[in-house]
């Protein structure tokens, strides 16, 4: 098969666009897709400083490379989840990637921040691992963005991630999540702006970009996500896509076209107006979910972690 | 009239087709980059038939041989190992 643009030997085919590209033309295609997404959803303002969540996987490392090529100001943030060898490899590959290219990177450990590794958190709190991971990341990403004076948080979610998440949210009619499933969420209530510049590109396209650009990423799957529903939904969507190329993109972008009509702004879905009285991050109640999780793990945490306002301490002082 | 020694071309072709092959086709060495498994599968001429043999959807993997990406219609060189690199990831996101 030859490249549809220049007729050289193709290295990748894209069935949903009924096309194929050589390495150079694929690079131009992919960069155009990212530029189009950034422009269409007004993801960045001039002089924005970006915090990029980097896992060490193909999508986030590739996005780091792409945003840097677009001459944007990017600071990488990696959270070591403490999942034994998998996390060691993820952190190492992220560090090496950043060092080789001279990119700036912040590395934090969930064990230092939450008081335990992800497997221990999942076990102790009886939460599904992906749920505990998501909760911790949302909190720590937002905190890091504010701490390092970043105006926007970028993540490497791709079309497959978004379409499978949409399918899961629709199957369970998760109205609250559907309302927020947008490629760009504005900053509000102390929550930083969030963007997903890869939402037009599939996992295969991102893996192809990473391969062609010599990006050494973590290939193996997170051992704690083996039973994740998202992988199951991805398989279903890929089966449909095989029979009818383009359905995945039509499904997801069709939703985006209709989301404003389907889920108009409602005051109930307004941003958090409170500040957690322990960590001072935005939240809906007096103590945020992350601090509640930390309290479950350690009823007597280091007071410095909680700015000296652990509820137990407060209640003791009050009684005194 | 002596019987002609010339064979019917169709018959010749038929005999050749039924002849046992002299050499067993070379199996293909496959490396799964996600699991780290190495395996051998019966010779397949093209990537599409290899993926079919392995029960893999071509849109869920990269197929790599000799530092090059292969497409489903590309031929496989049985002298070199084929890397199958799954691209699907899951979980709560990154």
Description:
The complex is a heterodimer of chains A (320) and B (94). Chain A has 320 residues and is an alpha/beta fold. Chain A folds into two domains: 12-271, Rossmann fold, CATH 3.40.50; 272-320, no CATH class. Chain A has 13 helices and ten strands. In chain A, the strands form three sheets. In chain A, strands 5-4-3-6-8-7 form a six-stranded mixed sheet, with helices on both faces. The longest helix of chain A is centred in the middle third of the chain and has 19 residues, at 129-147. Chain A starts with 11 loop residues before the first strand and ends with a helix. By secondary structure, chain B is an alpha+beta fold. Chain B has a domain at 28-86: Roll (Ubiquitin-like (UB roll)), CATH 3.10.20. Helices cover 19% and strands 23% of the residues of chain B. Chain B contains two helices and five strands; from the N terminus they run αββαβββ. The longest helix of chain B has 10 residues, at 9-18. Chain B is elongated, with a radius of gyration of 21 Å. Chain B starts with 8 loop residues before the first helix and ends in an 8-residue tail after the last strand. Mean pLDDT of chain B is 81; it is low at 1-15. The chains are: A alpha/beta (320), B alpha+beta (94). Chain A binds chain B through residues 1, 10-13, 15, 20, 53-55, 57-60, 129-131, 133-134, 137, 155-157, 160-161, 165, 202-204, 206-208, 211-212, 219-222, 224-225, 228, 230-231, 234-235, 238-239, 241-242, and chain B through 33-36, 57, 59-62, 64, 68-69, 71-74, 85-94.
